[in-house]
Every structure is written in C-alpha cells, then in structure tokens.
Automatic annotation (TrEMBL):
<comment type="similarity">
    <text>Belongs to the class-I pyridoxal-phosphate-dependent aminotransferase family.</text>
</comment>
<comment type="subunit">
    <text>Homodimer.</text>
</comment>
<dbReference type="InterPro" id="IPR015421">
    <property type="entry name" value="PyrdxlP-dep_Trfase_major"/>
</dbReference>
<dbReference type="InterPro" id="IPR004839">
    <property type="entry name" value="Aminotransferase_I/II_large"/>
</dbReference>
<dbReference type="InterPro" id="IPR004838">
    <property type="entry name" value="NHTrfase_class1_PyrdxlP-BS"/>
</dbReference>
<dbReference type="GO" id="GO:0030170">
    <property type="term" value="F:pyridoxal phosphate binding"/>
</dbReference>
<dbReference type="GO" id="GO:0004069">
    <property type="term" value="F:L-aspartate:2-oxoglutarate aminotransferase activity"/>
</dbReference>
<dbReference type="InterPro" id="IPR015422">
    <property type="entry name" value="PyrdxlP-dep_Trfase_small"/>
</dbReference>
<dbReference type="InterPro" id="IPR000796">
    <property type="entry name" value="Asp_trans"/>
</dbReference>
<keyword id="KW-0808">Transferase</keyword>
<dbReference type="GO" id="GO:0006533">
    <property type="term" value="P:L-aspartate catabolic process"/>
</dbReference>
<dbReference type="Pfam" id="PF00155">
    <property type="entry name" value="Aminotran_1_2"/>
</dbReference>
<feature type="domain" description="Aminotransferase class I/classII large">
    <location>
        <begin position="62"/>
        <end position="431"/>
    </location>
</feature>
<keyword id="KW-0663">Pyridoxal phosphate</keyword>
<protein>
    <recommendedName>
        <fullName>Aspartate aminotransferase</fullName>
        <ecNumber>2.6.1.1</ecNumber>
    </recommendedName>
</protein>
<dbReference type="InterPro" id="IPR015424">
    <property type="entry name" value="PyrdxlP-dep_Trfase"/>
</dbReference>
<dbReference type="GO" id="GO:0005739">
    <property type="term" value="C:mitochondrion"/>
</dbReference>
Amino acid sequence: MSAVAAVLAGGRIAAASASAKACAATTAVAASRMSLWAHVQQGPPDPILGLTEAYNKDTFPNKVNLGVGAYRDDEGKPHVLQCVTEAEKRLLDAHLNKEYASIQGPKDFRDASAKLALADADNALAEGRVTTVQSISGTGGLRVAGIFLAQFYNFPNKDRAIYLPTPTWSNHLPIFRACGIEPRTYSYYDKNTCGLDFKGMMQDLDKLENGSVVLLHACAQNPTGVDPTPEQWHEIATLIKQKNHLPVFDMAYQGFASGDYDKDAYAVRHFCEQGMLPFVIQSYSKNMGLYGERVGALNVVTTDPQQASAIESQLKIMIRALYSNPPIHGARIVATVLNDNDLHALLLKETHAMADRITSMRTRLVEELAKAGSKLDWSHIQRQIGMFCFSGLTEQEVQELISTYHIYLTKNGRISMAGVSSGNVEYLAHAMHAVTAHRE
Ligand SMILES: Cc1ncc(COP(=O)(O)O)c(C=O)c1O
C-alpha cells in the first residue's frame, strides 16, 4: 500500500470509529431518555372528572350525567347567571387594563366576599380582625389554608392531623396530604337513616386531643346533602369551643343550599359569635356559576388587627411562591355583583331559583320512583339539601345504572341533583327502581 493509500485508509478507519462512537453515544442518550420517565406509571382517572370523560364518550342519545357538581338548567344546559352577564358588560364598557392583581387579590373583592360570609358576626370585620385573601376558588383556598396550617399551627398530634367528616368531598384528602397534613376522619353520616350520625359525630369530636383541626362543611355537605340543624350546630360549637379545636369551614355552597345566603352562613357566623376563630373558605363556582373563572377566598378570623396583618403577610409570601397573584376576571365579576345593590339583589334571586329547581327535582324524583312502582323508602332524597343526594344505591347498583341505563354517577351512590331535569327524571326513576327492585 502506498503511503497515500495508507493515510486515506487510516482516515477512513478513524472516521468509521468516530461514527461508531457517535452512534453508541446516540444509543446511550436514547436509552437514558427512555429510562428517564420509565418508572412513571399511568395514574387513575379522577373519580369525578373521569366519569365525565366516560359520559362524553358514550353515544347513547338519552345518557345522563349525574356525576359532576355543576348546575344545569331544566334543559340540562350549563347556566350563566344574568347578574354575571350584566357585570361582564359593565367591565367591558369600563375598558379596564390587564395588569397583575395584588398578591392577595383586589380589595373591593375581598371586602365584599368577607362580608357575604361573615356579615357582622361578632363585629369581627368592623374591628379589622379578619384576613381575607382571594384564592383559586375553593380548592385553592383549602390548599393555601393547609400550607399555612402546616407551617404555623401548633398541632397537638405528631402527624399533624386534620379531621374530616365521613364521607367528605373526595378531593379533601389529597389537598391536605399535599400540604403535609394527615387526613383523619370523624363520624358524620348514618347509613341506616340516610341522615346525620349526630351522636357518633359528637363522641368522635370529644375524643380528639384538645386543639385538633376539624374541617366542617358550612352547608350542603358534599357528598351526603346532610347538614346539622341549627340546634345541633349550637351543640357542635359548644363542644368545639370547649375542646379548643380549630374549626376550618369549607363553604363551597353558600346560597346554594337553601337559596338564602344568610341562612347558609348560620354555622360560620354562630361559631364567630361564640368567640371562636375559624378559617372560612369560600367558592364562587356554584352560587355564581363561575366554575371556570376559579374565584374564591380564604378568610381567617383572628383576635386583633395586628394578628390579621401578620397572617396576611405570611399568606402573601406563600401565594407569591405558589402562583404569584390571582386571576382578575372572576374577582372583578364577583366584586361588581356584590357591590352593586341591583346586581346583588339579582344574584340572591337567581341563586334562590337554582336552589328551588333542585328542591323541586328532589320532590319529582321521589314521586316518579313511587309511580315507577318502587316500594323502598326514598324520603331521604327530599330531606337532604344542596346539590347532592346520597341515594343509598350500592356500588353494584351504580354500575348497572351506568352500563345498562347510561346514567353516570359516582360509585358511592352520590347523585348530582343539578343534573336531574323535567326531561330525564322519569327515566332516572325508572332505572333506579329497576336496579333496586331486588331489595324490596
Ligand atoms: C365541598 C367542596 N369544597 C370545595 C369544592 C371546590 O370547588 P371549587 O374549587 O370549584 O371552588 C367543592 C367542589 O365541588 C366542594 O364540593
């Protein structure tokens, strides 16, 4: 081989080995890319939103979605409140800019929101003892409350427990777990009466270490639709005060339970009047139909304005790191409605109408079940309140409703009454009777 040929051959060998090396490196990168997330397993669908996905895929013409907790009108359509549309027109006409809100949200929103929840209970607002921050609806308010409690509350138990009613909104558990707070339970629902297990609840609350954190649904308990009576709330408040527990009120349904905002805030205000310092988490998803706007508030009642200010400063530090500042549109709608006498009055009327439609569907469903020939006692459907009815249907009966009748509801038998309408109530009653007739 000539010297030139040898050099050329050497070059080819060097090039070939460089390309082999590059190829090996590419394969190694590809392999490490493959393994980067290989350990991530497919997660289960959300128990409630997963149902909507299954419902959407179903091609049966008379399918019914009773899973998701969102109001529908009597034609089964999503509903935008007139007061909201009017507020949006005014906001558009005002040609507002889109600058960032402050970390805690606009003041006109926060003041109006706190007033809607607390009114003049125990003079807390007048004395400047309440911290209110806008939240990413009820879910975000609960999450910020959880983060604050995890950092600042002096829990009486090592694993920092929050006590939740059994059953409760399924999302409460992951929300508090994500904050490093351990969800535990207290008795709430009595399967035999489809009502409140008041005795069990009181016994459990009494057994907790003093100073425990107790979550209470302010009204329209989700999923059971079972609320304590005012007299029972008095006894619960007395016990919680005696035990020095910290009450955390989830108030996702103010106005939606009875149609009356003051009546639905009775428990929250009573606790304040007894001198307790509750956390109150509000949502405007249901009562104003602002589901996708994600607007709510976290209120912390304190003993004095200095404490309120210190708590606000810490909440702001937490919010800044979470999402910096809240979305403006929903808060502007709520502030416009609540701060205008006419729009506020219209809101009360419209919330009342939504609550009334749901109540009338409860009556119709019980009547239609009887007409369909059911001999079972369904009276709890009428006794329960708010968006949900805890029907008492078993998991197997629910499965049959889904597979045979294309009626979608959560496996614990919770019916979103907001999805029941004049057009489907007869079909629903017929199907419920068919899957439960074996029990008669
Ligand atoms: C009891 C309860 N709390 C809080 C929420 C939170 O809802 P959002 O985040 O839409 O305000 C819900 C929604 O279904 C609920 O039922």
